Amino acid sequence: MLITLNNEPHSTDADTLEALLLDHLGSIPTAGLAVAVDGVVVPRSQWSSQLLIDGCVVDVLSAVQGG
């Protein structure tokens, strides 16, 4: 399926948000990561059950430390 991931076209076989994150990141950090699908923030507890559909928009944001 074709989705938009962080404003870039992305082809994936992942059917859930968790599978997409594992594919994209290699592993899922335990903290500091926020994800939205079609503009709606998805709680971490729902990543494994959040289904992706063709054409959806996924934004992955990570917290950075600094000053």
What does this structure look like?
A five-stranded mixed β-sheet has the order 2-1-5-3-4, with no helix packed on it. The protein has one domain: Ubiquitin-like (UB roll), CATH 3.10.20. It is built from one helix and five strands, in the order E-E-H-E-E-E. A hairpin with a 2-residue loop joins strand 3 (33-37) and strand 4 (40-41). It is 13% helix and 31% strand. It has one helix at 17-25, and strands spanning 2-5, 8-11, 33-37, 40-41, 57-62. With 67 residues, it is of the alpha+beta class. This is Thiamine biosynthesis protein ThiS. It comes from Corynebacterium testudinoris.
CATH superfamily: Beta-grasp domain
Number of strands: 5
Overall pLDDT score: 93
Examine the secondary-structure arrangement and name the CATH architecture. Roll
**Most strands sheet:** 5 strands, mixed
In percent terms, what proportion of residues is strand? 25-35%
Report the radius of gyration as a whole number of Å.
12 Å
Residues in helices, as a percent range: 10-25%
Query: Number of DSSP helices?
Result: 1
Helix/strand structural class: alpha+beta
Task: Tell me the domain tally.
Answer: 1
By CATH reckoning, the class would read: Alpha Beta
SSE order in H/E notation?
EEHEEE
The unreliable regions are none
Q: How does the overall form come out from the CA principal axes?
A: globular
Spatial strand sequence of the major β-sheet: 2-1-5-3-4
- For the terminal residues, how far apart are their CA atoms? 39 Å
